[in-house]
Design goal:
Bound molecules: guanosine-5'-triphosphate, magnesium ion
Radius of gyration: 27 Å
Number of strands: 14
GO cellular component, one term: mitochondrion
Number of domains: 2
Strand order of the largest sheet: 10-11-9-12-13-14
GO biological process, one term: ribosome biogenesis
Strand content: 15-25%
Oligomer: single chain
Protein name: GTP-binding protein 10
Subcellular location: Nucleus, Nucleolus
Main location: nucleus
């Protein structure tokens, strides 16, 4: 049996984990030489951590990605001291580090309400400056989501996430035949022969209702936000949490996990995801795998198997679907290679997208009509 194919139509998602912004403090206001009046200072630009914001939302809401604070008021006979310009705020999620374009850290946003000053406003004109104002600070800054790992393991309890991490890396997480063996994330590193390392976060098991804080709930889902890609792990023979909860087949598990992610934050589904079908050493595994394969090829058609409100709005399309056995090691080497491939493809795409974006910005800054250069005759 070899089924390590792609069940994929949309190749990669568009999860945003970093963002480059143009920020400019406001210019100061003019002073008033006749009466010694002082212009108002320009407004400052701040990045502020706020709940329920994502980098993607900032990108969508401000496609130009320019944040410019207000200009200070000029000094006048009525108000010798001009008013300060209005501050501009960039609301961002917490778990962000704010850096300059060259990578120097300006500050970090770790919890809601944290603020980082990214561009100072110019001074208002006063006696000391001959009543002339100064311009505000201008900068390109980057907001980088602080990731805990490249890959995050997502699955129902007992799917074998910790066993898989053990098979892939040197990590030694706790493994148990009871649900919720893993209670907090553990990071393992997959080592490759050329010394490349990829970090994998073993996360607590997800259960139906996690988005409303059942099981490990939000605490767990928060960690999923901070990994570059997802690796869904299902038991090929299905899963039942307890005697009084329904049995879920592998296909149902995939959809229910998708639904939980969707209900918590739809954007999580735009991360590239690999599907690992574990426990291929079990006696009925081959038959169950064939069934799952067919169902994944026609996800919509098989959704009647699920309760209506558990059907996800959009189905996950995996970059790779890989049957393995964490116990026997079957498929593990291949999975290791696919993980690397998936991350590298995504990195290339992200770099290409960034280059394109920079080019677009450069084009915007260059005037449309080129000026003639000295010594070079301009075309008649
Ligand atoms: N037969 C078989 N059993 C496996 C395999 N992988 C894991 N198991 C068993 O499944 C049970 C659960 O494994 P864990 O690795 O603890 O599962 P988990 O997904 O980390 O579980 P939680 O931490 O509770 O979410 C253990 O008894 C493992 O020995 C496999 O490939 N084949
Ligand atoms: Mg575990």
């Amino acid at each position: 049996m070899v089924w390590v194919g792609r069940v994929c139509c949309r190749k990669y998602g568009n999860f945003v984990d970093n963002l480059r912004l143009y920020v400019r403090g406001g210019s100061g206001g003019m002073g008033l030489p006749r009466l010694g009046g002082q212009g108002g200072d320009g407004g400052d630009v701040w990045v502020v951590a706020k709940k329920d914001i994502t980098l993607k939302r900032i990108k969508d809401k401000y496609p130009h990605k320019r944040f410019i604070a207000g200009v200070g008021s000029n000094s006048s006979v009525r108000a010798l001291k001009g008013a300060k310009g209005e501050d501009a705020y960039v609301f961002a999620p917490s778990g962000i580090s704010v850096t300059t374009d060259s990578g120097r850290v300006i500050g970090e946003l770790n919890s809601e309400g944290d603020k980082v000053l990214v561009a100072r406003g110019g001074h208002g004109g006063s006696f000391h400056s001959g009543f002339l104002p100064s311009k505000g600070q201008t900068r390109q800054i980057r907001l980088d989501l602080k990731l805990i790992a490249d890959l995050g393991l997502v699955g129902f309890p007992n799917a074998g996430k910790s066993s898989l991490l053990t098979a892939l890396s040197h990590a030694k997480p706790q493994i148990g035949s009871y649900p919720f063996t893993t209670l907090r994330p553990e990071i393992g590193k997959i080592m490759y022969e050329d010394h490349r390392q990829i970090s994998v976060a073993d996360l607590p098991g997800l259960i139906e209702g996690a988005h409303v804080n059942k099981g490990m709930g939000h605490k767990f889902l928060k960690h999923v936000e901070r990994t570059r890609q997802l690796m869904l792990v299902v038991d090929v023979c299905g899963f039942q949490l307890a005697g009084n909860t329904p049995f879920r087949s592998a296909f149902e598990a995939v959809q229910l996990l998708t639904k939980e992610l969707e209900l918590y934050k739809e954007e999580l589904l735009s991360k590239p995801a690999i599907l690992v079908i574990n426990k291929m050493d079990l006696p009925e595994a081959e038959d169950r795998l064939r069934e799952l394969e067919e169902q994944l090829h026609n996800q919509e058609e098989f959704c009647h198997l699920l309760p209506r409100d558990s059907v996800p709005k959009t189905f996950l399309h995996f970059t790779h679907t890989v049957p393995v056995s964490a116990s026997t090691g079957y498929g593990i080497q291949h999975l290791k290679q696919l993980i690397r491939q998936s991350l590298e493809e995504h990195e290339t795409m992200a770099t290409e997208a960034q280059t394109k974006e920079r080019l677009k910005e450069l084009r915007r800054d260059v005037p449309v009509t080129a000026k003639p250069v000295w010594g070079v005759p301009s075309p008649a």
